Structure formats: structure tokens, C-alpha cells
Amino acid sequence: MTQRNTIKFASAAAAGALALMSVGQATALAAPSSTTGLYGASDPTYDGVFRQSLAILGLTSAGVKPSAPSIDWLLNQQCADGSYQAYRADLATPCAPSDPATSTGPDTNSTGAAISALMAINQAGAAPAATMSKVTNAAARAGLWLGKQQLKDGGWPYFPGGASDANSTGLALAAVMTSAPDFKVPAYVAANKFLATLVAPCGSADGGGLSYQKGAKPDGSASSQGLLGLTAAIPVTGPKKLTGSPACSGTTGRKVASYLSSRILAKGALDSSFGTGPDYTSTASTVMAFVAAGYGKPAVTKATSTLAANARAFAEKDGVAVPAALGLLLMVSEATGKNPRSFGGINLVTALQGSQR
Questions:
Q1: CA–CA distance from 229 to each of 26, 27, 343 (Å)?
Q2: pLDDT band at 274 (very low <50, low <70, confident <90, very high)
Q3: So what's the pLDDT on residue 1?
Q4: HSE of 121 in the Cβ direction (CA atoms, 13 Å)?
Q5: How far apart are CA 198 and CA 208, in angstroms?
Q6: Banded pLDDT at 21 (limits 50, 70, 90)
Q7: In the chain, which end has fewer C-beta atoms inside a 10 angstrom radius, N or C?
Q8: Under a CB-based contact definition with an 8 Å cutoff, are residues 217 and 211 in contact?
């Protein structure tokens, strides 16, 4: 793989964070604009579907119905085979084949995030009946495509044709759990075994941490996304009574959680895996995973405080809203019982709604 996936919305935030349908039916959706209903003013080339999905997940977690144009935008972005790619600028042009060498075409990250958003719309009853049938159809088709991409080792690659990695596997698992919340489903069991092969031994310097792929150094991004897939369907409902910090023992999830907990308690947030400074995206994902799992109270408290204190820096870039970050903070506020209309001095709901094109 030529490009590391750190939940594509992470790129956006840092830089600015299963009824089949025929091909003819899919291409008939070419009339709408490729940006009408899209959240955020920045170029959607690399994160359009991801940031839209995070935004919709955030709004539904706060009990707010996404607008009809925003839902239509996500529906119209779907490829004929049910998959999603980062962004389709021309809806009349069919999606190109996936190419891991150039990181183009449909990918598991965009598809997994879209599934979670579509399921959230359905579960919240956030669309009229006529649109809801399209939503459930789209989620079913995307789920079928995503299920076919799981490799024999149990993991998922970022782009079909690539190798499995912890980040993509975590995101795909989150979508699987949103669609079928059962830790005994074969897809989950196989992915759990794959992730276990990437965990650093307890007692080592990075004990419990997940590596992106074999041979890589464990890091917060791979660990947070892997843990989210192992523990949660998103968005995460909260708040819940949490136990203390997990020890590096037992299940894969607890081992990974111990690594994440120790690093958050040390600095208030996870370090970026791509340079210096904090990674608020991975920190937010960790908060949701801990609440879903029911442990890590000290780290949840500290991380939430850090996210609130840095909400504006995370959710705005040059005074312009970052929809993926706002969606994440909305999910954190729901998971931790904070007020989404006054989180770190920001009304997350209005800020996100106001960014819609």
C-alpha cells in the first residue's frame, strides 16, 4: 500500500482529521450536483464520503436529523457495485476499479464509514419513508461489497488488492458491528484473530499497542481504530459507568486499551503517528471505544477534557468548519454525556449544519 489510511477523516482534520441495484439504476443518479448537500467548504477529493459520513453520524448521535440534501449527497456517491470511493466529482462517470498502487477507486474506509452513517440514519428514522428505502438498500449493497473484501488472514485492506492493515480492519469491523452487532459473527472472529497478530507483547516498551501492519511500530492511530472496531458499533451511546484503567492482559481489546490508556494519561491525548503534536482524531476514537467497552474512566476523563480545551483548534481551520472533526466531537459528547451545543465553547450542531453547501 502506498498510502497509510488513518481513517480518512483524520487526514482531513489534520490537514484542515448488505437487494441489489442494477448498473442502469445507479447511473440514473447523475443529475444532482456533486457538492450539493456536502458538509464543509474544503476540497472533497480525498475525504468527501468520509467527512460526510462522520458528520451524519455526529448529528444523529445528538438526536438531530441530517438534512435531506446531505443524505441524498451520500446516496448519490455510491458506486454501481455498492462500494464507495473517497469522492465522485462526476456522478455520470462510473467508478474506476480500485487500485492500491495509486490509492484510487473504491476503498474499504469510505465504504465502511458510509455503511455506519446509512445505518445511523435508518436507526434514527432520520429520513422520509421514500428516502429510507434508498438508505437501507444502499447500506445492504455496501455491506455485501465490504464483506467480500475481507481477506483470508481475517483483515481488510484499505484498497482491494492491497494487504490487510489494522486501521482498515478496525473501520470495517465498526461497520460490521453497526450492521450486525454480534461478537460471534465469523467476520468479527476472523478480524479479531488478525488484529491479535499485530499486538506488541505486554511488558515491551509498546506493550499492547497495535501496529498498522506486521513489522511496523505500534502507534495510536492503528491502536485506536483497531480498538474501536473490536468494541463498538458507532455512534456509541452513553454515558456509562466505567471501570478503571485496563491492564495489558486477557483479550486483544484489553491489551490494546492498556496501551492507549497509558499514553492518554501521560499527555492528555495520543501523539500523531505522522509527526509532532497531538492526534485529536485518534483520541476521540479511543474515548468512544472505551465507553463502549466500559473501562478506562481516567483516560476518558482526561481525553475528553483535552478535546474540549482544543475543540476550536480541532474543528476549525482558518476559521472554516472541519465537518469530520465536528462529527467526531458530537459523538464524543454523546458518549460522555456532554452538551453538544456547548462543547469547548462551540455549538457543534449549528457549526456543522452551517457548513453544508
A1: 30, 32, 26
A2: confident
A3: 31
A4: 31
A5: 9
A6: very low
A7: C
A8: yes
How far apart CA 324 and CA 332 sit, in angstroms, is 12
Q: Let me know the angle formed at the C-alpha of 261 by 322 and 323, rounded to the nearest 5 degrees.
A: 10
305: confidence class by pLDDT, cuts 50, 70, 90: very high
Q: Phi/psi at 39 (nearest 5 deg)?
A: -85, 130
Burial class of residue 32 (count of CB atoms within 10 Å of its CB; 0-12, 13-18, 19+): middle
Average model confidence (pLDDT) for the chain? Answer: 91
Confirm if 259 and 299 have CB atoms less than 8 A apart.
no
The label of the residue with cell 456547548 reads: 342
Question: What pLDDT is stored for residue 138 in this prediction?
Answer: 98
Residue carrying C-alpha cell 499485530: 198
The alpha carbon dihedral of 112, 231, 100, 279 has a sign of positive
288, amino acid identity: M
Read off the pLDDT of each residue in 265-277 and give the average, rounded to a whole number. 93
Give the residue among 89, 190, 80, 90 at the shortest CA–CA distance from 145: 80
> Hey, is 301 helix, strand or coil?
helix
- Side chain identity, residue 188: Y
Contact at 8 Å (CB) between 220 and 210?
A: no
End-to-end Cα spacing for the chain? 33
Enumerate domains of the chain plus CATH numbers. Answer: 8-353 (1.50.10.20)
Query: Amino acid identity of 122?
Result: N
Q: Is the pLDDT of residue 281 over 70?
A: yes
Looking at per-residue pLDDT, the higher value among 32 and 55 belongs to 55
In the predicted structure, residue 6 carries a pLDDT above the cut 50 = no
Which residues, including other chains, have CB under 8 Å from residue 275's CB and lie 6 or more apart? Answer: none
Q: Which grid cell sits at 198?
A: 499485530
Q: Residue 241: name the closest of 340, 338, 308, 336 by CA.
A: 336
The runs of H, that is alpha helices, within the chain are: 8-15, 23-27, 48-61, 68-76, 108-124, 129-148, 166-179, 186-196, 220-231, 252-267, 280-293, 297-309, 311-315, 323-336, 348-353
Arithmetic mean of pLDDT, 124-136? 96
Instruction: Tell me the mean pLDDT in the region 140-150.
Output: 98
